[in-house]
Amino acid sequence: MSIIQQIVSGLGTPNFFVLMPEIVVTVTALLILVVELFTKNKTLLSTLAISGLGLATVSIFFIQQGDVTLFGLYIVDTFSLWFKFMILITSILIFAVFNPYIESKKTFYGEHYYLMLFAIVGMMIMVSSPNLVTFYIGLELMSISIYILVGLWKKDYKSKEGAFKYLIIGGAGTAIISYAIALIYGKTGSFDFLRIASEIQDKADIGVLGGLLLLIVGLALKASAVPFHFWTPDAYESAPTPITAFMGGVAKLATYAVIVRVLIGAFPFSEEIWAYGWAILAAASMIIGNFVALRQKDVKRMLAYSSIAHTGYIVGALASGNAIGFQALIFYSLVYVFMAIGGFIFLSAFEKNEGWTNHIDDFKGLAKKHPVMALYMLILMFSMLGIPPTAGFMGKFGVFIALISADVWWLAVVLVITSIVSAGYYLKIVANMYMHEPVNDRKFNLTPMEKSVIAFLSILTLLLGIYPAIFWDISNLLTQSLVMVSIAR
Amino acid sequence: MVPYEYYLVLSGLLMVLGFIGIIVRKNIIALLISTELMLNSVNIAFVAFDMKLHDVAGQVFVFFILTIAAAEAAIGLGLIMAIYRMKKDVDVTKIAELKG
Known about the structure:
The complex is a heterodimer of chains A (489) and B (100).
Chain A: H1 3-11, H2 20-38, H3 42-60, E1 67-69, E2 74-76, H4 78-96, H5 98-105, H6 111-127, H7 132-151, H8 157-188, H9 193-200, H10 206-222, H11 231-238, H12 241-266, H13 271-294, H14 299-316, H15 323-351, H16 366-369, H17 371-385, H18 391-405, H19 409-434, H20 448-466, H21 469-488
Antiparallel strand pairs in A: 1-2
Chain B: H1 4-24, H2 28-53, H3 57-87, H4 92-95
Helix pairs in contact in B: 1-2, 2-3
């Protein structure tokens, strides 16, 4: 009997069926890696990518039974499956509008397609990690792919500078997270969330406390919370705009998911400590993000600061430290991904045209020239601002309720006041579109695909505001699954 | 035998040194070296904890960190090459364009 046979008979074969979405996406990425060598046909490459992602999305519905597989290193439950579904769906939307943009900017690289797929695999690994090793590998697979994606812009210096800043600060974040893992491992002797939780219980000493603190700092850096946000505006501004949508929407969604997963899984008994830490980070993000966004003239950079502010609103829900807070966080992050990629895809659709520089003045009189598109942008901006009946309002309302239920009044007050401040820049875009005459009568070309994707995203944002019960039930289910798993395993 | 706490102190010092390097250095190559220093200090910490716990799981993790550090160095050097070709300089204060 060979050694491999002995190992297999000793441990049993892992259940590969529940890994189907990951396998499909990885195989598609490797296929594109090879096909891209022989052809420069963009339509073929993006069709391959979209069909691979579609197949992976369909394969999620065939997984009836969750499982802990790969010898306890990988968990497939309701939480991870739902987040994988959202990641795949939103990525398909971005791939759908990707080709016209890079064609008009003349910056084609075949690497775009498979690096995005590898980043998606990283996110999928991340959201289904019951173990710090899996979590670390997924996080780094995502981050490293995105460093390259930011820098992939032919003959554009800013893109390289943004990517380098992201690499240095992200690399520091990686080092901080790995040091946190080292401290937690040194204290508990295990990487498994459940073993860590049962080792620590409520007797958190200086080693665990330091590890938890460093872990929060590292995760805050990856989710771009103030004061670790310095890479965000530069990287978001300098990346190709569909990639910005990918970073600002999909990657953020996965990061929020993994934050909840790690904190509930590994540190359920030290909730006062991390709740307090996230409260401070959230308050700083809301205040700095919104006030700095006020003086931005470039809309892409403005949306980058708005994404910092939204990180504040979303992780602010963790300050409550109870199930209502987790539910609010999951709900807000699920609806935020639609608003964020909607806003960035809007910019990418217009940026293809001559005479559009993303400057705030370019929006003047857009309602006269493109009434329908202006209406969609209006819905997206109102949703980010949090005006009912849009999904953004329901998200902020959920966080507000969660904070009040845990008696964190000061953060609830900061949330409301900074939301009012944010009206200063979101409404400036709307006012420029509707209350100014057009400077010139130049029309912009948009492909039907871009129009339908933006329409889908803004109408979905509106519908989720009118019927929030759909997503509210989902986030309730996910919270239950998450809390149950950490109790039952 | 040297007690494991000494190695931990060393790794903590290297970590802080790397962090200070990222803040104060102006040369983009030195910035990259600082992040590598931070990552490698973590390896010492893992091995030191394995010494304390009489385990090997931490040393397995070190391999993952080494791989990731190598990938980051490759990307960083590629970006430095691209930046140097465009600007003929490696000083952060002279080449920075993104502000605000």
